[in-house]
Amino acid sequence: MTSPVWHPFTQHGLNEPIPHIVSAEGPLLHLADGSTLIDAISSWWVTTHGHCHPRIAAAIAQQAGTLDQLIFAGYTHAPAEEVARGLIALAPRAAGQPDLAHVFYSDSGSTAVEVALKMALGYWHNLALDGLADARSRILVLEHSYHGDTIGTMSVGERGVYNAAWTPLLFDVDTIPFPAPGREQACLDALEAACAQAPAAFIVEPLVLGAGGMFVYSADLLRAMAAICRRHDVLFIADEVMTGWGRTGTLFACEQAGVVPDIMAVAKGITGGSIPLAATLATTPVFAAHHSTDRARLFYHSSSYTANPIACAAAAANLAIWREEDVLGRIARLAQAMAERLTDLAGGPAFANPRQAGTIAAIDLVARDAGYLSDLAPRLRAFFLEKGLLLRPLGNTIYLMPPYCLDASQLDRIFAALHAAGEKFGLHA
Ligand SMILES: *Cc1c(COP(=O)(O)O)cnc(C)c1O
């Protein structure tokens, strides 16, 4: 019987296998047929401490029997209050920059970014109402960015086959070239010139551009970008949806640059990867621009499940794990183990451009011919599946983003499969 389920990012016409998973624990996924996969990409970058973490699962069960859902317009509950205070306490901070002090909840990374964009335009709109500034509405974006799949987030992301059908719906943005090695100054110069045109905001994925190809850039560049924005009064939006929750080696990537964004979007690992939740953090000036006795200036955004108590309870348990356990130490050890193996892999002829930030590691497979690229990723996916691994290459870029509980022998299995993939699919094969 064919399934009625329409899967995301899946071409059903290719009839690729769709494994049926029945349970999970730590870095492992168990299949209906009794076999096991190592989840080497944290089930789309969300699972941080491991699947079915007992503490998070217990918090969900407890909250589900206490308060399951509550309208969040005009009402509040303890888990939402606790998580908001916890996020503020853990958020990046730096002398001389306004603190992130306000938390707006939503349900996914895409909505957290949409909210960030709406806050940025709302900020300028409300300042203009008071004659304090000209209304600004243009958004600056970094080349190769990914910020989500809704209309607004596709608008600020890289254009391509992924969104070609919806181009007529997407709004115009100004694109700053990615600071690839040798082009750092060109990137900063372009940002400076674009900022001089008084745009509303610049949105970036700090340190690592994820879905666009796992491109990394330095903390120095991130700091320089933020400084340019500050000098021109352009709001700096950090999309920490992927980079947050320890992925790059610090809790948030912005910390490494000493940058406090004006607006910061978090999602993915906020509940340890257990249940959907997202938050957009804002500084007091951004909040204050909406704070008034005038109802026309309130922040017009909500969804039915905003700050769902069960999701917030999961996030509270995640925050407690971060406070009480040496998660950063665990991440540092895993990142070191990944670095050693990545260096070894990069020494072979089949791979190029190794790059890493914390527990995100990527490398390009030098494939046999470019025309082959289009079906290389699914072929690699099938190859890894056969080897007991959940991996999902982006074109010829193979990346790892494992849960922090992955052990050395599991990492060895992953890298053995990468070596084998190089032999089978590499140019020199
Ligand atoms: C995944 C991702 C998003 C979108 O998050 P969803 O929860 O999938 O909507 C946004 N920004 C970045 C950087 C991401 O990696």
TrEMBL record:
Pathway where this protein functions: Cofactor biosynthesis; biotin biosynthesis; 7,8-diaminononanoate from 8-amino-7-oxononanoate (SAM route): step 1/1
Q: What is its EC number?
A: 2.6.1.62
Highest taxon of the lineage: Bacteria
| Compartmental location | Cytoplasm
Site positions per UniProt: Participates in the substrate recognition with KAPA and in a stacking interaction with the adenine ring of SAM: F9
Q: Which Pfam families match?
A: Aminotran_3 (PF00202)
Residues annotated to bind substrate: W44, Y146, K268, S302, R392
Q: Which coenzymes or cofactors are required? A: pyridoxal 5'-phosphate
Q: Which family does it belong to?
A: Belongs to the class-III pyridoxal-phosphate-dependent aminotransferase family. BioA subfamily.
Quaternary structure, per UniProt, is: Homodimer.
Q: Which PANTHER family match?
A: ADENOSYLMETHIONINE-8-AMINO-7-OXONONANOATE AMINOTRANSFERASE
Listed name of the protein = Adenosylmethionine-8-amino-7-oxononanoate aminotransferase
